[in-house]
Design brief:
alpha/beta, 11-stranded mixed beta sheet, two-stranded antiparallel ribbon
């Protein structure tokens, strides 16, 4: 017989482990928060379609959610305690308790539990009641005994862990955005390379801290790594306030970039939709004019990480996508950082995207491209557009290259102009196992005169390809 209460407990534990409130989970599934509450209390069960969505969202099988125990615990229980947790809890008995909670908790939550335990502020125990009836006096004698969790056998811990996890769930997180909690396990300190954890200080300010004490605050919802735009190239300054930002977002853009039988934005979306990644990293995102077309259509649970040098633009991005482009399936995190030294661990991202972002990094273009490769999982994908010349040997390309090189060097976005064959070689040298390329539009005809015709967006004369590289 199906145990509704146990299924509800498992759904609640998986929800908390994903850093979601009941309302946030309901939003991702297109249902009411009351429906989720009824599942978790055991009053109702999801229908089969919603079970499929839950299984996809939590990276589980339907059987593991419904049947629990063997497949649920075995798949999740293989998770090891983070080193930071083991360092706080040296004794085996309390480690055993934390290990029982691991299938239902994130690393950030486990660290918080361990910190509370090590400080003597947290104890887990099971209350057992004993009642003896005295028929002569018509009264009951009652006694409650407390059984420490550390004294329980593993089987008992496994059965009670969902209940403990449910009680502990409110201890951490508070109003912290789910995306920030989700990204904590992916972060590494850009100074020393150590992992980082999400913390709240005594003034209720949140930030990321590494074991060596490097701290990075969350300012206006953006994780601030203290980066600055390139001196003399502070492009974001032309947007003096959020109103200017909205004008930019609503501008139709340069028609040159809409050329092609199928526009680049649509070709990119088809690639993203096919992959259905859980974690997307946008490198040098700027105002996110590339990925925003995909964000409107994503219909699966997804974490999107926007990275750029400009804290101010990311602050505006965050507001815009929370107010005007909200998608209940997507959690967004903004990192103001050097995209040539990403504060992200090796091999943890499903999909890297970049809409002209690599080229906008100018002299750091190739460093940014290699960083994208580093953070990708094996089997992960990079989906990005690249500007290329048609043929270095053609008269048309030679004239464009001569005019381009006649500009002041401060206008040059990067040192080398590639044709598509040369770029495919670069992809292989970087380590990608394969790269599929699709031409969006070709190189413009060179002008008759000897004056370079563009003052802004100076690479628009080049052709554009959409690339899908596989690690």
């Amino acid at each position: 017989m199906v145990d509704r209460e146990q299924i509800g407990m498992r759904i609640a534990a998986l929800r908390r482990r994903a850093g979601l409130s009941q309302a946030a989970l309901a939003g991702k599934l297109g249902i009411s928060a009351q429906a989720v509450s009824k599942w978790e209390s055991g009053r109702n069960l999801p229908d089969i379609d919603l079970f499929r969505e839950l299984a996809w969202l939590f990276n589980m099988t339907i059987d593991s959610i419904v049947e629990g125990d063997l497949s649920f615990v075995q798949k999740s229980g293989q998770k090891k305690l983070p080193a930071s947790v083991e360092a706080l809890i040296p004794d085996a008995e309390r480690r055993k308790v934390l290990q029982s909670l691991a299938p239902y908790s994130s690393d950030t939550e486990l660290y918080s539990f361990a910190k509370e335990m090590s400080a003597g502020r947290l104890e887990l125990s099971l209350a057992a009641g004993v009642v003896r009836r005295n028929e002569k006096l018509e009264t009951d004698f009652q006694r409650v005994v407390s059984i420490p969790a550390s004294a329980m056998e593993e089987g008992t811990l496994r059965e009670t862990a969902p209940y403990f996890s449910k009680a502990l769930g409110g201890m951490i997180g508070g109003d912290t955005e789910p995306g920030l909690r989700r990204i904590a396990e992916l972060m590494r300190c850009p100074e020393c390379g150590e992992g980082m954890r999400l913390e709240t200080d005594t003034d209720n300010r949140i930030g990321f801290v590494c074991p060596n004490g490097h701290c990075y605050s969350v300012v206006d919802g953006v994780v601030n790594f203290g980066t600055r735009e390139i001196p003399g190239e502070q492009w974001s300054l032309f947007m003096k306030n959020y109103e200017d930002y909205l004008v930019e977002q609503r501008h139709p853009g340069n028609p040159r970039y809409q050329m092609g039988t199928v526009p680049c934005s649509e070709v990119r979306w088809q690639a993203v939709k096919k992959l259905r990644p859980h974690v997307i990293l946008d490198i040098a995102c700027g105002t996110c004019n590339g990925l925003k077309y995909d964000l409107q259509r994503i219909n699966w649970p997804c974490l999107v990480i926007m990275t750029d040098l400009s804290h101010r633009i990311l602050k505006y991005n965050r507001r815009y996508f929370r107010e005007e482009m909200v998608n209940p399936y997507v959690d967004i995190v903004c990192l103001a950082c050097d995209c040539a030294r990403l504060p992200i661990k090796d091999g943890c991202i499903d999909l890297v995207v970049s809409n002209g972002g690599f080229e906008s990094m100018q002299t750091k273009m190739m460093a940014g491209f290699r960083e994208g490769y580093r953070v990708l999982k094996t089997g992960g994908y990079a989906v990005y557009n690249i500007s290329v010349v048609e043929d270095h040997g053609s008269d048309n390309t030679r004239k464009w290259e001569r005019l381009y090189r006649s500009l002041d060097e401060s206008y040059h976005l990067h040192e080398r102009l590639f044709d598509i064959g040369q770029w495919e070689e670069i992809c292989g040298q970087t380590g990608y196992s394969s790269t599929e390329t699709k031409e969006i539009y070709g190189e413009l005809p060179a002008p008759d005169g000897d004056i370079f015709p563009f003052e802004n967006e100076i690479l628009q004369w080049m052709g554009e390809y959409l690339c899908v590289s596989v690690k």
